[in-house]
Design brief:
This protein is of the alpha+beta class. Helices cover 48% and strands 16% of the residues. It has helices at residues 8-21, 39-48, 64-84, 91-103, 107-114, 118-136, 143-155, 177-188, 193-200, 225-233, 269-284, 288-300, 313-319, and strands at 30-32, 35-37, 50-55, 58-63, 162-163, 166-174, 212-217, 243-247, 250-262, 265-266. Helix 8 (177-188) runs antiparallel to helix 9 (193-200).
């Protein structure tokens, strides 16, 4: 059985496209100088687009249509097995993770970057949670193990349970003092910071995004200290005068704007206890019973695909049934920035 690599961004993108095309009708999907290109042709080509996935522990390429069919069948089988065993994901579990992620980062921005909605994220996480529940259902974790793990993690720098005080900043950077002074004059004359950054900033990573850098904390040593110091000294909504930064290989003039500031946040043990329990349980769990259980469930399942080109997919799944090589894991706590 192909390793479960939940590329739901790919799946969702395909589904959104197909739904959007449903209304094309007789007009055709594309019209080039009066020549109509039918949506059926688009569907046919879309189904053949190569997608990289994992089968039998090896990277392989399959047509997108086959990939989506296999993915949908696999997801439904795992969900049904979890329901049969009484360990389907719960709203409590999903909301616990959702709240953790929202507290520890810009979750909405991450969803936009992934191209999925919060509802789709919940659907994806529900499936992942069901798999985790199946694997860990007989694994015990003591309260002492939980507390020891929390105490170790809270002392780390950075810690996955500590979101440091931070500033959300934008910058204009130039190697030329003359150019940075020109930028400063434009700002003083009332021009928008983002527009000036687009015009004059020489930093390729931030200039295309109107100078936006993101969240910056004092422990981010990859950012020169003069920039960190200036950010925390600057009031929200204001920008600095041009200042020179010479730090190792960094030698430039900078204007910095602070858009937001946030306080330090420490996650209490009670807030992350169940996340820690799940992570430890996944580490301790014997996955062999789940593997056998999944094989047996697939073998007994009645799977029919009413499309000739994909009719052999169920047979392939049954023949190659094994434990997925990429089990969806719980969101591992990462340092909140």
């Amino acid at each position: 059985m192909r390793g479960i690599k939940l590329s739901l961004v790919t799946i969702v993108a395909l589904m959104v496209i197909l739904l959007a095309l449903a209304g094309c009708g007789r007009k055709g999907l594309i019209n080039v100088n009066g020549d109509k290109l039918a949506k059926d042709e688009f569907y046919a080509r879309l189904e053949r687009v190569p997608v990289q996935t994992v089968k039998g522990g090896k990277n392989v390429t399959v047509p997108a249509g086959q990939y989506v069919v296999e993915q949908m069948i696999t997801e439904r089988l795992l969900t049904q097995l979890a329901e049969k065993e009484g360990v389907a994901s719960t709203d409590t579990q999903l909301n616990r993770k959702l709240n953790y992620l929202k507290k520890n980062g810009n979750f909405s921005a991450q969803l936009r970057q992934m191209g999925v909605t919060e509802q789709e994220w919940k659907r994806q996480m529900s499936l992942q949670q069901s798999v985790i529940n199946l694997i860990t259902k007989d694994t015990k974790v003591t309260d002492a193990e939980l507390k020891n793990a929390y105490d170790r993690q809270i002392k780390k720098v950075p810690s996955p349970f500590v979101r440091p005080e931070a500033c959300h900043i934008a910058v204009i950077i130039s190697a030329s003092q003359e150019k940075i002074q020109k930028a400063y004059k434009l700002l003083e004359d009332g021009q928008d910071f983002g527009s000036v950054a687009l015009q004059l900033s020489e930093d390729k990573n931030t200039a295309p995004y109107q100078g936006r850098v993101g969240w910056l904390s004092m422990d981010m040593k990859v950012v020169p200290m003069p920039i960190r110091t200036a950010a925390f000294a600057c009031p929200v909504g204001k920008y600095t005068k041009p200042f020179h930064v010479k730090d190792g290989n960094d030698n430039a003039w900078v204007i910095l704007r602070v858009d937001q500031k946030r306080r330090k946040l420490v996650q209490k043990f009670a807030d992350v206890k169940e996340l820690i329990r799940e992570e430890i349980a996944l580490t301790k769990a014997d996955k062999t019973p789940f593997n056998k259980q999944l094989q047996q469930f697939i073998a007994k399942s009645k799977i029919v695909v009413n499309a000739e080109r994909y009719s052999k997919v169920p047979e392939m799944l049954k023949k190659n049934a094994s434990m997925p090589t990429n089990i969806p894991a719980a969101p591992k706590p990462t340092p909140a920035r």
